[in-house]
């Protein structure tokens, strides 16, 4: 091979070493230290890949250098560098190490005799800074490069260890790695409700050109806006939340952590992270550029960021974030409670999550009675503005309170989940006739596996010291109906809601000795290998029933 071909195949980093050796003055006693410093900096730099996004980890107060040169034979060519901070602000600069083309050629030929180089040629070798920036915004530098120039990128983080991404390209003819933003990249808030915010933004030109490879992802949080998807991911992870890679930008089936909820509906992917710092939502909605966020909290400020994402490369560009405050929660209506009257409060869990009841007694001793019918409910009772009771309700609950005549009691009933809830409420003087019958220690129904046959089952339940009426009902169900039947059971409904064919029997019993206040019943005439749902209703003197917890029993298939 000729020598020219030999240098053509010489690795790039050796060419750069040769370049540095010849573009710096030969080391004398006075310049020896600076020469060593240049070589040290070179060996602690890395070649920056062209056309590829590079992730760089920075240690606090320790600068890091990368460099690049253009291909041989290209006199002038445009290039762009995009730097994305993923956490704290950083400092970064672009330095150029220039030398004349003829001088670089001498270095490539291995001519180490620099004594014949003129002063003007030595002067043509110099280092200068052409760009520097400090901050946490995504910045892009566009310039023209010469094959006789070595470009050095310096990065420094002075706050803490962090990481950034850097994208260098010298190919301006092919498509962009990053999706394009519209001329006006702002997000507009076009609607605000108590629990909803509606946003819209202008389409990215990339969506119009490559619709199948581009999608929008929306990030919602209660702290602040993020200038890049990379910064958002870092902040969410540092808050203690586990986040799937690239913010679930594709519909890959990631394994979620316990504090995450993934919702996939109508071609939209939503991931909800819950942590002490608040709720963070990520929604990827394809190419729709208008979106209404549901189920927000009233009187809360939210920050919204939209990212347009290239699904092929996972590269993204951020719109200018915005924020909005949801409307204050309307004052709930107040219902007056009257002595002994029963009110059933129904909450839908979304539009109306709470209901207020007011009671002004004519007696010093009063009693509040609550019977949970469905869902999950929390009760908060205040007397003249001071809290006297607050707890979640399960089954039946009594609150006996003592005060003064004409005290004002305010009862707030609040749903603790987004499904429908209902509860019956009664306020009465302490000596008033009880609304509900005397209850046993447990409302569970027990079945005896050894007494099961192909056409009968035996069940048992606890009674009380007060003679009461008990009615048993049965219902055939399928295996896949068990959860729904138990979950949606209305614990306030009585036998009047049941079909007459479901009634098995009614009986009276009691026992002064509570340890013997147990009754059993064998239900016959059943089908083999069939699931049955059994209910027991207890009736007191007021006639209002209390429903025991439903029991599912399956008859034997073979006997």
UniProtKB/TrEMBL annotation:
The keyword Kinase does not apply. GO terms for molecular function: heparin binding. It is found in: Secreted. GO terms for cellular component: extracellular region. Residues 1-23 form the signal peptide. GO terms for biological process: nervous system development. It comes from the Eukaryota. Its main location: secreted. PANTHER family: NEURON-DERIVED NEUROTROPHIC FACTOR, PROTEIN NDNF. This is Protein NDNF.
């Amino acid at each position: 091979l000729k020598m020219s071909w030999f240098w053509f195949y010489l690795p790039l980093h050796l060419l750069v070493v040769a370049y540095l050796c010849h573009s710096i003055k030969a080391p004398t006693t006075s310049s020896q230290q600076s020469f060593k410093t240049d070589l040290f900096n070179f060996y602690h730099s890395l070649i920056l890949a062209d056309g590829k996004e590079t992730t760089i980890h920075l240690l606090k107060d320790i600068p890091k250098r990368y460099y690049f040169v253009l291909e041989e034979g290209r006199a002038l060519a445009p290039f762009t560098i995009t730097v994305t901070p993923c956490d704290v602000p950083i400092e970064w600069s672009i330095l150029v190490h220039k030398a004349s083309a003829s001088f670089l050629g001498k270095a490539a030929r291995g001519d180490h005799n620099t004594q014949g180089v003129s002063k003007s040629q030595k002067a043509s070798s110099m280092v200068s800074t052409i760009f520097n920036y400090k901050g946490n915004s995504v910045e892009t530098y566009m310039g023209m490069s010469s094959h006789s120039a070595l470009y050095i990128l310096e990065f420094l983080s002075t706050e803490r260890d962090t990481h950034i991404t850097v994208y260098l390209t010298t190919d301006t003819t092919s498509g962009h790695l990053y999706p394009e933003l519209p001329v006006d990249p702002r997000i507009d808030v076009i609607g605000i409700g108590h629990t909803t915010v509606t946003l819209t933004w202008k389409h990215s030109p990339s969506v119009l050109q490559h619709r199948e490879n581009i999608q929008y992802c929306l990030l919602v949080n209660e702290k602040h806006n993020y200038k890049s998807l990379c910064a958002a991911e870092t902040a969410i992870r540092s808050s203690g939340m586990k986040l799937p890679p690239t913010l679930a930008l594709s519909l890959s089936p990631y394994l979620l952590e316990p504090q995450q909820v993934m919702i996939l509906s109508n071609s939209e992917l939503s991931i909800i992270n819950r942590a002490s710092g608040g709720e963070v939502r990520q929604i990827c909605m394809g190419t729709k550029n208008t979106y209404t966020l549901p189920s927000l909290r009233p009187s809360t400020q939210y920050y919204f960021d939209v990212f347009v994402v290239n699904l092929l490369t996972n590269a993204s560009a951020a719109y200018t974030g915005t924020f909005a405050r949801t409307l204050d929660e309307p004052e709930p209506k107040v219902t007056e409670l009257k002595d002994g009257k029963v009110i059933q409060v129904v909450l839908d869990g979304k539009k109306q999550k709470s209901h207020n009841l007011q009671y002004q007694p004519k007696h010093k001793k009063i009693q509040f009675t609550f019977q949970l019918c469905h869902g999950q409910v929390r009760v908060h009772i205040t007397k003249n503005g001071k809290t006297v009771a607050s707890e979640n309700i399960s089954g039946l609950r009594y609150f006996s309170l003592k005060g003064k005549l004409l005290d004002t009691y305010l009862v707030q009933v609040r749903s603790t989940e987004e499904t429908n809830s209902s509860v019956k409420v009664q306020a009465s003087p302490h000596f008033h006739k009880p609304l509900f019958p005397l209850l046993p220690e447990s409302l569970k129904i027990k079945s005896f596996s050894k007494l099961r046959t192909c056409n009968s089952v035996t069940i048992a339940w606890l009674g009380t010291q007060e003679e009461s009426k008990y009615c048993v009902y049965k219902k055939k169900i399928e295996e896949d109906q068990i959860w729904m039947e138990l979950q949606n059971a209305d614990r306030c409904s009585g036998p009047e809601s049941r079909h007459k064919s479901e009634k098995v029997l009614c009986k009276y019993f009691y026992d002064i000795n509570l340890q013997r206040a147990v009754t059993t019943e064998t239900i016959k005439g059943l089908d083999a290998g069939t699931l049955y749902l059994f209910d027991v209703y207890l009736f007191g003197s007021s006639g209002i029933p209390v429903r025991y917890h439903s029991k599912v029993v399956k008859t034997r298939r073979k006997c």
